[in-house]
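During the practical work, I worked with a single protein chain and the tokens that describe its fold, as given directly below.
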Amino acid sequence: MNDSPKAALRILIVDDISTNIQVLGNILRREGYSLSFATSGSQALSMVLTDSFDLVLLDVMMPDMDGYEVCARLKERGETRSIPVIFLTARTSPEDIARGFHTGAVDYITKPFNSEELLARVRTHLALKASADTIHAQNERLSAGNEELKRVNAELRQALQEIRTLRGILPICANCKKIRLKDTDPRKQASWVVLEEYLTRHTEAEFSHGICPECLRRHYPSICEEIEDDQSS
């Protein structure tokens, strides 16, 4: 059983010529990669849509569907767009190479294959995909964490609002106007507090103190008379 980290990396080789598949397979198998093979573009698309691959080595010239079309279709779909595609081609003209990159390929390898070049390019793009996958997973975790934080903050704000808002019926003394604290024994004097204390405990209100005209006349009649005299003079 191969426990090498490379064995977990899956490469799909797509070529209609069995000799090319055999050569590529021998080179990559020695490195310990997990390999799959397709001999046509339509077969390759079917395999990629039903299984997961870390890299596709794709021949350009194939009879039923050429590599350019296969690559373009892979890049059209969200679930396959991130799979790097390296073209296998005997075409080396600037136009052919540019067309390959335009359809979404990340690199190309010319035929006949140079094993060292092949392995270097494969290692590079597998490492780049691994890094991209890690960054994507971290971003998803951060996004999920941010959404959860927003939800918790909203719940806390709502809870605070409910805590700091007076609700329901307030039991108030008909004589002294003290309010009884919630869930306390009404027979105990400590259960009853003045309105100012109650509001301080249960709301965000702050108090400044003054005296209304009625209380001024009742408790401070002399001061009230002086004020009325000053106003009339």
About this structure: Residues 115-163 form the longest helix (49 residues). The longest strand covers residues 10-14.
